[in-house]
Write the structure tokens for this entry.
Amino acid sequence: MSTKPGIDSTEIMQPINSKGSLNVYYHFYYPDDVVSAELFKDLCEGLAARGWQVTVFTSNRYCRKAGQISPSVENINAVNVKRSWRPAFRQASNIGRLANGFFISLGWVINTLISKKPDFYIFGTDPQFSQFLFPVLKLISPKTKIIHWCHDLYPEAVIANTNNPVLIRFCQFSKPAFKFLYKFVDVMVDIGICMQKRLQQYQHKAKQITLTPWALTEPQATLEVKPDKRQALFGNAKLVLLYSGNLGHAHQYQLFLKLARLVRSKNPDIIFAFSSSGNKFEEFKSQITENDSNIKLLPFAAIGELEDRLCCADIHLISLKDQWSGIVVPSKFFGSLAVGRPLLFHGPKDSAIGYWIEKFNIGASLTEHNLDKIANDLIRFAEAPQLLEQWKQNAFNAYTNNFSKKIIIDKWDELLMLTLAQHEK
């Protein structure tokens, strides 16, 4: 086995009797601990366990540790992994991200050319603009079906993420190119109803289905608060609202800050905690004053500590800017439901999250118009915590019945088998 980063044509044997074969293309993969890498690992290993021959095409770099590299070829839990070399350019830089994407895409094309042609190509949305490989891969193997699992919508995400008029204009002009590229997609997999609507604007002819991500931790029942851990983090707080996860360009915090200040004047024992990172987190911290005694900042929790951190709170906070609706769905939504915690959502009510909150009765949406009502509700919950029990159970049931890893990967398995059967007719 080669440990040198780059392209390696070595094929690792897999069972002959399988349902079919598929190549999965995504920038990051295990042992990288970034959330999307964990999700693609779960998907690939889950499909391999269900009888598919799975080969992952990824990069040799880590998301947060670009200087660290992984072997070019290895087998991990019955999944073949082939890593293409890329330079260690900064992902935070637009130019660096595009350059990294170019080298990864080049490696993927070469690796695909020298590999056995599969039944399916499954593409994620990192690196950006990897959709330009769709016609290339169709040229390499016309009979192979392309499935696009769209976690982030481009070029819309770039437009929403910048104030640069030149970049915005470039992305707007690129939309006809994406309309052309999506014609090569056989199955378009979105992660929410708003994203599905945005994708339909490209008038693609692909079969469309919603298959959401899942939580990285999946307890078997609604988790109870652990008194010792809660005491250590929040003292004698009567109610804890927790924002756990990235606070980036797609998120907002202004109404959470207003709500915390409004609640403090009525019940200072209601705590708003933020365990976060991201480019908006520093901005958020700069807004906090000495008077914000009910706002607590916590270090970012590692994956192994995440479950304990999540269950210390009574309600989880989640946010999304209006212009990002249909472009991304924050993964923390699924993590909150998995541990049985209701949500307070600062974002558009007609987004996928707003829709699910109302459909499953698992929390509330926060707006400028209902700040007083939400504040009064929180005060009631602090005095009578049992009022939250129905929301908690609803959250856990919604996850178990609709968003769990087993349910979603079973749906992936069903989708692949159905698509393959239709192709063979």
Notes: The mean pLDDT is 90. Residues 94-113 form the longest helix (20 residues).
